[in-house]
Amino acid sequence: MAGRSIAFAALALTGSLAIAAFPPVARAAEPPDAHVTAAANSRPLPSVSPTPQSISRSGDDVTVTGRVLLVVDEHTDASARDRLVRELKKHGVARVDNVSPGAVPQASQGLLTVRLGAAERPDIAAALGDTAVPARAESYALKVSARDAQGEAHPDIALGGTDAAGQFYAVQTLRQLFQRHDDDWTVAGAQVSDYPSMPLRGSIEGFYGPQWTAAERLDHMDFLGEMKSNTYVYAPKDDPYHRDKWREPYPAVRLAELRQLIDRARAGHVRFTFAVSPGASICYSDPADTEALTDKLQAMYDAGVRSFSIPLDDISYTRWNCPGDAEKFGAPGRGAAARAQVGLLNAVQHDFVAEREGVNPLQMVPTEYGDLTDTAYKQTIRATLDPAVQVMWTGTDVVPPQITNAQASKAAELFGRKVFVWDNYPVNDFARTAGRLLLAPYDKREPGLSDHLSGIVSNPMNQQAASKLAVFTMSDFSWNDRGYDRDRSARQAALHLAAGDSRTADAVQVFVDLNHMAPTFGSQPWQPQAPVFGAAVERFWQDHGSDAERAIAEFRPSVRAVAQAPGIIREGVPDKLFLSDASRWLDATQLWGQSMEHGLNVLAALAAHNAAEAAQERQSMDSLAAAASQIMVDPAEQGRHGPVKIGDPFIEDFVARVANLHDESMGLPPLRELARGKQATQISDYEWGGAFPFGADKSVDGDLFDFSTTSGREAQPWWQVDLGASADLEKIEIYNRTDCCAERTKDYYVLVSDQPFSGTLADQLGKPGVWSHHETDQAASPTTIATTARGRYVRVWLAGTDPVELNMAEVQVYGRVQEG
C-alpha cells in the first residue's frame, strides 16, 4: 500500500500525457476476496468503486437497446428509479417503459429488461438466481444476464436491495458497468453481492474558516450519494448558529437553504446530521438551556432532519460557565465535566431522540477526543452514557499518523462502545496545512477497522470540490476496508474526476502527486510530499554528474508532465467547482513546470558551453519561478494568507540548484540562506510561562509553523539576526505567522548594517552604513525584499507608535559568501 514506487513515464510523441508506471486502470482488478471468472468471449469487468464485497462474471455482456422495459412497483425506491432512468438515457436508451412485475409484455423478448426493487420481490429473486443477497442493511445484489433459463437470448438486469438504500447503491454500481464498444453501449456481464463494512460513512463539515457555499454543499450531497456514503454532518465551526449563537434560531433565509440541503441529502440516501455545539457557553444545570437546545433540535426536526449530533470538542472542561454547575456537579474537572455532559446527552437521547419517529441515535464528540488515555472523564462516559449514543473519536491525535486495529479496539474499550471516527483528513484549516491542497489517497488505516468502528467520516478541506479526490478514497475504504487498495482507489478517483478519460486522469495524478503532503500537528507529515516527482528529481541529480545529457533527456518528460498537467486538467475535467478550487494551484504548477523546463535548458546549454543561451534560459527560469512564488491563496476561501505550495521542496530546490550551477559557471559564489541557525534577538519575549517559547530563534530555525513573538508592551518593537560575518546580500524573505496576525507586520522597516544597531528607529534611518527598506503592503507571506546591501546585522523594525507584538514565522537572508 503506502510507499509503492510510481514513476512518471515519458510523453508520447503525439504530446499526450501518460504515466505508464502508475498502477494500470484496473479494468479487471478486484479486491483480494473478489472472484472473477472469465466467460467465453467475455471482456474484463470494469472496475467498480467503492470496491464491492464480491463481483464476478455472470456471462456475456448485454447490449443496451434503444427501448428498455423498466420493471418497478410501489416498493421501488424513487431516487434509485430516477437515477436508473437517467443512466439508461445517458447510455443510448431513447425510450424507457415502466411496467409492473405482473405486466411484462410477451413481446419483450428482444428488449433489455431492467428489474429494480426489493430483493425478495419474486421476479427479482428469480432473475438474481444464485447471486447471494447479503442479509445486512444497505446491501444489494445485481445480476446482468444475456440469456434466460432456457438459453434463449433475453437481456435482463436485476437490481435488488434489502432496503431503499440498497436499491440506490445497486444503481450506483450498475452505472459503472456501462461500456462503449464502437457505436454501441453494453453492460458488463457481472453479478455482484455487496454491502457496506461500516454502518456510517461520509463527511463532516467540521473545519474552521470560511464555510462552503450552498451550491458546494448541494454538490457534495450528490457526490456522497454516488460514493454510497450515507452520512453528512453539518458542523462548520464558523457558523455562529452552530456554536456561538446556538440558542438562537436560524434566520428564515438560512433555514430555507438548509431545508434544500436536507432534501438533496435525502434523495441520495445521505443522512443529513445536524450538529449543534453548545459547550462553550451552556449551563448544564439550567433547565432553560436544555430547553433551548431541544428547541433548536426540534426546529431542525421540523425541517426534515432525522440525525443529530452534539459536539463537545475544543472547549474548556476545567471551568464552569455558570455558578449553578459548581453547585450541582462539584468543582470543575474531568469527572465533573463528564457527569454534566452525560446528563445533557442522556436527556436529549431519552426525551428528544427516542420520542420522535425515525430519528437515529444521537451522536456526540467528547472533549477528550484524540487519545487513548484512561481518565475520570472517559470512565464516566463509558459507565453512564446511554449505550445508544454514538461517540466520535479522531484517533490517537487530532491528526493521527495512523489508525490501527489495536488502537480502535482500545478506544472502544475506553468509551464502552464502538467509536465513530472523525478523521481529520483532508482538512486544511491548521497552520501546517497553510497554502496546501491535500489530495493524497487515504492510507495508513488498517484493514479490519470495520470490526472495531461504527464508521468513518472525513473532515474535508475548505475547498469542497478539491476534497473529492481524498474523500473518494476514504469512502472506498469505509465501504470495504478489507478490499481497499490505495493505488487502485487513487486511480479510480482520478478517473471519476476526469469523467473516465485516461489522459485527463493521468494529469490529475501528476497534480495529486505534487499536492501529496499531509501534515500532522507534529513536525513529521503522515503522508509525504511528491513521492513520485521527488524520487524523479533525486534520480536526476544522481545521474547528472556522470552523464548530464542522458540525465536531462530522461528527466525532461517528467518536467513536461508537470508543465502540461494544468492545461489538460482544465480541458478535460468537467467539474467546474473543482477547477475553481484548484485554480491557483494549477496556475502555480504550470509556472513552476515551465520554470523547470527552462532550468533543464540552462543545464543543457552549460553542458554545451553555450554561455549566451544559458544566460537567456536562466532569465526565463527565474522570471517564471518568481511569478509562481507570488501566487497566493485566497483568504476568503481558506481563511489565511500565504503562498500556494506545490511539490515543495523539490521544485524550488531544483530551480535554486540550477541557479547556483549557473552562477558557478560565471565564477560567482553560490547564493546561500545565511540566517538559518544564527544568533537572533528581539526587544523582548512574549510571556507564556515557559510552556510554548516564542523566542527570537524561532524565526531562524527553518520551521515556518513556529514563530517568534515580542511581549507587545513596546511601540516599534524589533527583531534581528547576526549573520556572524558580513556578506553581500541579494534578498530577504519575511514569513508571517500563518494562523493569525498578518496585519501586525504591515508597516515596518528592514535594516542592514555592518555594525550593531543602537538607539531608536529614527536614529538609524538615513544613517551612513545602514541600508533600509520601508514595507507597507504585507498582504501575504512571504514578502521578498531585494537588496544590494552588504552587512552582518539584519533587523526588522515595526514603524507604528502603538504598543503591539511583533510576530514572525521565519526570516531568510540570502547572500553570497566567498568560500575560504
TrEMBL record:
<keyword id="KW-0479">Metal-binding</keyword>
<feature type="active site" description="Proton donor">
    <location>
        <position position="314"/>
    </location>
</feature>
<dbReference type="InterPro" id="IPR029018">
    <property type="entry name" value="Hex-like_dom2"/>
</dbReference>
<keyword id="KW-0378">Hydrolase</keyword>
<dbReference type="Pfam" id="PF07555">
    <property type="entry name" value="NAGidase"/>
</dbReference>
<dbReference type="Pfam" id="PF02838">
    <property type="entry name" value="Glyco_hydro_20b"/>
</dbReference>
<dbReference type="InterPro" id="IPR017853">
    <property type="entry name" value="GH"/>
</dbReference>
<dbReference type="InterPro" id="IPR015882">
    <property type="entry name" value="HEX_bac_N"/>
</dbReference>
<dbReference type="GO" id="GO:0015929">
    <property type="term" value="F:hexosaminidase activity"/>
</dbReference>
<keyword id="KW-1015">Disulfide bond</keyword>
<feature type="region of interest" description="Disordered">
    <location>
        <begin position="33"/>
        <end position="60"/>
    </location>
</feature>
<dbReference type="InterPro" id="IPR051822">
    <property type="entry name" value="Glycosyl_Hydrolase_84"/>
</dbReference>
<dbReference type="GO" id="GO:1901135">
    <property type="term" value="P:carbohydrate derivative metabolic process"/>
</dbReference>
<feature type="compositionally biased region" description="Polar residues">
    <location>
        <begin position="48"/>
        <end position="57"/>
    </location>
</feature>
<keyword id="KW-0326">Glycosidase</keyword>
<dbReference type="GO" id="GO:0046872">
    <property type="term" value="F:metal ion binding"/>
</dbReference>
<feature type="domain" description="GH84">
    <location>
        <begin position="199"/>
        <end position="482"/>
    </location>
</feature>
<comment type="similarity">
    <text>Belongs to the glycosyl hydrolase 84 family.</text>
</comment>
<keyword id="KW-0732">Signal</keyword>
<protein>
    <submittedName>
        <fullName>Beta-N-acetylglucosaminidase domain-containing protein</fullName>
    </submittedName>
</protein>
<feature type="signal peptide">
    <location>
        <begin position="1"/>
        <end position="28"/>
    </location>
</feature>
<dbReference type="GO" id="GO:0005975">
    <property type="term" value="P:carbohydrate metabolic process"/>
</dbReference>
<dbReference type="Pfam" id="PF22633">
    <property type="entry name" value="F5_F8_type_C_2"/>
</dbReference>
<dbReference type="InterPro" id="IPR008979">
    <property type="entry name" value="Galactose-bd-like_sf"/>
</dbReference>
<dbReference type="InterPro" id="IPR011496">
    <property type="entry name" value="O-GlcNAcase_cat"/>
</dbReference>
<keyword id="KW-0106">Calcium</keyword>
<dbReference type="InterPro" id="IPR006585">
    <property type="entry name" value="FTP1"/>
</dbReference>
